[in-house]
Structures are given as C-alpha cells and as structure tokens.
Design brief:
heterodimer; A: about 290 residues; globular; B: about 270 residues; mainly alpha; MetI-like fold; 11 helices
Chain lengths: ~290, ~270
C-alpha cells in the first residue's frame, strides 16, 4: 500500500510541479514586472527590491488608464470578438445541424472535414485570406470581372477583414460542441411536436434551440476568449488602424520594448477578461475554469 | 425523420464547406502559378517549389521547428498522460481544484499572455540561477510542452473515463503486478488517445507563432516566424508553395491517423 501511495504521489507531483513552475509562477513574475519601471539595459526593467527597499510603482497602470488607446483596444477586442462569436454561431449552427441530419454514413466524414482545417496551419489559413481580400486579390478581381464594381473594394486593413479572419479561424471550435449537443437530441421529440400540430419553425424555436443551448454556450465560451486575445488576425488582416488588445501587448513588447507596460497590459487582460470569463464559464457550465 | 436533410440545411453544409475550404484551395491553386503576381494566372508552373527547396532560411527554420515539435510533443505526451490519469483516477487529493485549473488554464489563456509570462520567467530564472543561459530551442520546447500537455490530458482523460476498469481489476486479481497491468492492459487500451494526443501536441507546436516568438532567442527561428515575417511583406508565391506542402502533409497525417483510430475503435478489444 505504501508503494502505491508513493506511486500516486509521484504521478500527481510531476505534472503538478511542471504546471506550477511553467504556468502559475510566470504570472507572479508578470505582476512583479508590471510594478517596475522601464530601464535601459538587460533586462529592461528596474528591480523590485533595491538597497533593501521595495520599489513598486503603479505608474504603468496609471498610464494604461490615462492613454485612451488601451481602453479603446480593449473595448474593440471585446466588440470584434462578440460579433465574430455571433457570426460563428450563425454559420456554425446550421452547419452542425446539417451534419447531424445528414445520412449516418456521411456524418463522421463530414465532421472530420470540419476538424481538418483546425489541424492545418493557422497562420496559413489567415494568410490565405490576404490573397483573397487584398486590392488586386481574387475577390476584387472576380467582382470587377463580373462588372459588378469598377474600383477594387477596400476589403483588407479594415474591420471587415478582422471579422472574416476571426470567424474563419474559429468556426471549427464552434461546430464541434454544437454538433455534440445536437446529436444528443432525440428526434422523437420533434415528431411528437409535429404530431401535436406544431409547425417546424415553432418546433425548432421551442424544442431544438432550448435543448441545444449547452452546446451554444460551450461553443461561444470556447471561441470568445482566444478571439479577444488575438494578435495574428488584427496584425495581418486588420492593418495599422484596427486595434485589439492582444496586438497592443505584442507591440508594447516587440516594438516599444517596454516590458513593464506590456506586463501591465497582460495583468489588465487577466483581471478584466480571463478571470471574469472563467467565472461566467463556471456559472454556466459548472466546470472549473 | 433522422434521414431528412432539408434543402436549407443541405445548402448550409455546402456553403459552410465552401467557406472552410475555398481559401485553402486558392492558396494551393496559386502555388502552381507561373507569375510572380500572386493573383494573376499565367499558366502552370512548379518553379516556386524549386525555389523553395533551395531556400536555406526556410529549410533551417523547418528543421528547427521539427526538432522543437518532436521534443515538445514527446514531453507533452508524458506529462499530459500523467495529468490525464490524475484527472480521471485520483478524485480526491489536496490541491485537486487548483490542479484542474492549472491544467485547463493553457487551453483558454490568450497566447500573448502565456508567451509574455513564460519569457519573463526565463529571464528571471536566467538572472537568479543562471539557467537558461540563452533562449532558443529548449525554452520554446518548454513553452510548447506546457501548452501541449493540457491538450493531451483532455484526450487521455476522455479515453480513460470511457474504458472498462474491470479489465484492469481482473488482471490485478489474477496476480499481475501494477506495472505489468499498466503495460499489458491500460497502455494498449489508451494507445489511440496517446497517438491522437501526440499528433495534436506536434501540430500545435509546429504551428505556433506567438508563444515561440516570445520565448525564442537569437539562436532559434521557427518556420511560423519565417512565414510571418515574409507574409508581413506581402503575399509571395514561395509561401504559397510552402503552405501547400504543409497543408498536404498535415491533411495526409490526420487522415491516416483518423483511419488508424477508427480501426482500433471498431476492433473487438475496446
């Protein structure tokens, strides 16, 4: 029995220690550096303890609140992510429902082909849209060729391109939980509704939709947070004027080399985005995190 | 009732798949375009593939990415399998809730935050204990293990909670040692999940730009970093060719793995 207990302790301790060191501890360091000043040197921030005194400053946070850029980037990210989540739902729901209703032998193949893009390179899928959307890109060429427009439309470097990129990239994540929820639905319920004189649209609204709500909630939660933190899509498709908080963090770090402000942005994202969403998720699904 | 696909749903399936695959198809088609202008068709050509193969920067970055993906998928498989066991078998121990939060955390954390926080950890560790001396393959691999193990643990946990534990109990009753039970009974039963988890961690690592950019140093440039800096300059036919090769390789791997998994799932042993 003692050998068993030792083995159990070891099995728990190895992943636990790894996660504490490489996932939990880093946040303490982010918090620490967000309270430091930018400095010239390696590393580019002032130490928290110097000459026996604690040198903490909340200047970085005051800066985040005084410059409206950060608030706008944060609200923009929420706005884009909320609409793109809704867009994913509008396309993903009928798609998932269609696959559930498809003849049985097709279903697993259709589902596999929804998941397949998720495995292929994310960067390349975003890149594909540049070729389609840009001024002399495929969509503009087709529209001009068809005589529908004379000047190329400004499809890229715009909010539109961000929406397309977000919806496209996150659609598979939305379809999977929706499919799982819709597949569980007993068709006898819809037959009963129709036998009792319910029209299909009413049956959908009163039976299918309420019963698939767990899938809707799970799908929305799954895509919303990572969308808010997106960097690649606003950077490659949105152009310089479309701010999102994830891109702001990246630019603070890589362009301005201001580690303390980048850390403060990360802490603000955690407090204002990740933790509230985790709480909502817990409330709605009963799962931890 | 179950086999009735309304015209609306049928249309939505077609529209949905056109949306998912149209952009990918356009990349593949234009990778065979003879023209440097990416959107003007000038006849079939494989010149971009030839140029790609002689591009040293891309080849080195691809090798670096593969090395990191191999290390991190294997590390993620080991730690993620242990974590999956903990989640499904050890219902009660001190810190169970925190463990559950930590293991699912990397799945929902925005990548920019994970990347920045790991970089700051590596810098702080480097100052405090002199390790890691410089950032590169190893630090990226550590970051990817942390991300990958979360995915592996989800897959392994699902598999463990769906299989019949009486098989293990029977073997124990018949006098097999726990280590032998694990090797002969448990491991073969969860093997499909291990294959899927390893592949998932491998492709995640191969694909990651954000976390790798934060945790890398001057000594290591991964393939997504090269693609990203090239794409920022504009669309290039060489990137189309590279994208096509990656897409075909990944699709083939996933379809083959899917076949293997489907076969083991239908076999009588499971």
């Amino acid at each position: 029995m003692t050998a068993d207990r030792w083995r159990h302790a070891l099995v728990i301790a190895m992943p636990y220690a790894w996660l504490l060191l490489f996932f939990a501890a880093p946040f303490a360091i982010v918090l620490k550096i967000s309270l430091a000043d930018q400095a010239i040197g390696i590393p580019p921030y002032t130490p928290l303890m110097a000459e026996g005194k604690i040198q903490a400053t909340i200047a970085n946070y005051q800066f985040l609140f005084s410059d409206s850029l950060y608030a706008r980037a944060y609200l923009n990210a929420l706005w884009y992510a909320a609409w793109a989540t809704f867009g994913c739902l509008l396309i993903g729901y009928p798609l998932a429902y269609g696959i559930v209703r498809a003849p049985l032998p097709w279903r697993s193949t259709l589902l596999l082909f929804v998941i397949l893009p998720f495995w292929t390179s994310y960067l390349i899928r975003v890149y594909a849209w540049i070729g389609l959307l840009k001024g002399n890109g495929l969509i503009n060429n087709l529209l001009i060729g068809a005589g529908l427009i004379h000047e190329p439309l400004a499809l890229i470097n715009d909010a539109f391109a961000i929406y397309v990129g977000l919806i496209y990239t996150y659609l598979p994540y939305m379809v999977l939980p929706l499919y799982a929820a819709l597949e569980k639905l007993d068709p006898a319920l819809l037959e009963a509704a129709s036998d009792l004189g319910c029209r299909p649209s009413t049956a959908f609204r009163r039976v299918t939709l309420p019963l698939s709500m767990p899938g809707v909630i799970a799908g929305c939660l799954l895509v919303f947070i990572p969308m808010c933190g997106e960097f690649v899509i606003p950077d490659l498709l949105g152009g310089p004027n479309q701010l999102m908080i994830g891109k702001v963090l990246w630019d603070e770090f890589f362009t301005n080399r201001d580690w303390p402000v980048a850390s403060a942005v990360a802490v603000a994202m955690l407090v204002l985005l990740v933790l509230p969403m985790a709480a909502v998720r817990r409330q709605l699904t009963g799962e931890s995190v | 009732m179950t086999n009735r696909l309304s015209p609306f749903l049928g249309t939505m399936i077609i529209v949905g798949f056109a949306f998912l695959y149209g952009p990918i198809a356009s990349v593949i088609v234009y990778s065979f375009n003879a023209s440097r202008l990416v959107t003007v068709w000038a006849g079939f050509s494989t010149r971009w593939y030839v140029e790609l193969l002689s591009n040293d920067q891309i080849r080195n970055a691809a090798l670096t990415s593969f090395e990191i993906a191999l290390i991190s998928a294997t590390g993620a498989l080991i730690l993620g399998t242990l974590a999956g066991f903990v989640l499904s078998r050890y219902r009660r121990f001190a810190g169970r809730t925190i463990f559950g939060g930590l293991i699912t955390g990397p799945l929902v954390m925005p990548e920019v935050i994970t990347g920045l926080s790991l970089l700051l950890l590596f810098v702080a560790l480097g100052q405090a204990i002199g390790w890691p001396k410089e950032r590169g393959v190893l630090t990226i691999a550590i970051a990817h293990i942390t991300l990958g193990m979360a995915y592996v643990s989800v897959v392994v946990e699902a598999r463990l909670s769906s299989f019949d534990r009486s098989l293990e109990e029977a073997a124990l009753d018949l006098g097999a040692k726990p280590a032998k039970v694990f090797a002969v009974i448990t491991l073969p039963l969860i093997a499909p999940a291990l294959v899927a988890g390893w592949l998932l961690a491998f492709t995640l690592s191969l694909d990651d730009l954000v976390i790798a950019s934060f945790t890398s140093g001057p000594s290591a440039t991964t393939l997504p970093m090269v693609i990203f800096s090239s794409v920022r300059m504009g669309v290039s036919p060489q990137i189309n060719a590279l994208a096509t090769l990656l897409l075909v390789a990944v699709a083939a791997a996933v379809l083959i793995a899917g076949r293997i998994l489907a076969r083991t799932r239908n076999s009588p042993t499971t």
